[in-house]
Amino acid sequence: MELIIYLLIGAIAGFAAGLFGVGGGLIIVPILYIVFSQMNYDPAVLMHMAVGTSLATIIVTSMSSVSAHHKKGAVLWKVFANLAPGLVLGSFLGAGIAHYLSGQGLQLFIGGFALWVAFKMFRGAHAKIDPAQHLPSTPMQMLAGGGIGIASAIFGIGGGSLTVPYLNRCGVVMQKAVATSAACGLPIAIAGALGFMWFGQQAQVDLPHTIGYVHIYAFIGISVMSFMTAKLGAKVAHRLSPAMLKKCFASLLSTVGIYFICQGILHF
What is the pLDDT along the chain (268 residues), one digit of tens a residue? Predict the structure, then answer.
């Protein structure tokens, strides 16, 4: 029964990821939080488990996405190489920061982040790229990668919500920004998941079917189904306007953000 629940979560997250063009982390984290709550997991580590497991699942979906984008020649591998060192170091550091945050603090952080992304999506639903902008120097790209990595690990996402806007602002067209962001999601997810496993082991998390802050059954079930349903979501996305998609996703994120902020405040 438990595995069936994780398969359903994966189906929803994969469809949403394909539909909205971003990783499923901001979908997976709140659903896992609710499921783990119903399973009476320790509230002190509940949120950390949701975030760590979410990052682990992004490893699989990111590999699939990168392969598809690479075949179309859309990935800017030089930009990826510049961002990657910062992404890896930042993601591991982000996992450490999340480890030292209380469950309530993590809820407030993620809730606030979801609302911020929702606001940016609402405001930028009809935004156009400025072709006059250019990518900064290599050291600045590495620094940006570090910031994206830290935030992505704390929030349990593949970084698309941050990498795509960053590349857009630097004059990269949307298709190549999304493709490069997908590639960036892989080092974020690997380093972040390993960080949550390691810090979780240090905290001696005593829950069944887990390695540190990563739930193995949830990882397998969500990864398998999200890999399959992401393609269906992408097909549906082509029938809707990009502006409408952004507004729908922003509405969903607003709901998630308000939910986590309320939960965090109630448990303080």
Answer: 788 899 999 998 888 776 765 667 878 898 899 999 999 998 889 999 999 999 999 888 788 778 877 888 888 999 999 999 999 999 999 999 999 998 888 889 888 988 988 887 777 655 555 555 678 899 999 999 999 999 999 988 877 778 888 888 888 887 788 888 888 989 999 999 999 999 999 988 888 899 999 999 999 999 989 888 877 876 776 677 767 777 787 788 888 889 889 888 886 6
Contacts 24+ apart (CB under 8 A), 250-253: 250/117, 250/118, 250/119, 250/121, 250/122, 250/125, 251/118, 252/16, 252/27, 253/26, 253/114, 253/115, 253/117, 253/118, 253/121
User: What pTM, to 2 d.p., does this model score?
Assistant: 0.85
Cross-strand partners of 211: 214
Name the residue range of residue 14's domain: 2-266
Q: How many domains does the chain contain in total?
A: 1
HEC secondary structure over 130-172: CCCCCCCCHHHHHHHHHHHHHHHHHHCCCCHHHHHHHHHHCCC
List all residues 6 or more positions away from 59 whose beta carbon is below 8 Å from its beta carbon: 186, 189, 190, 193, 223
- Which helix (H) or strand (E) is 210 found in, with range? strand 210-211
- Among candidates 155, 160, 52, which has minimal Cα distance to 106? 155
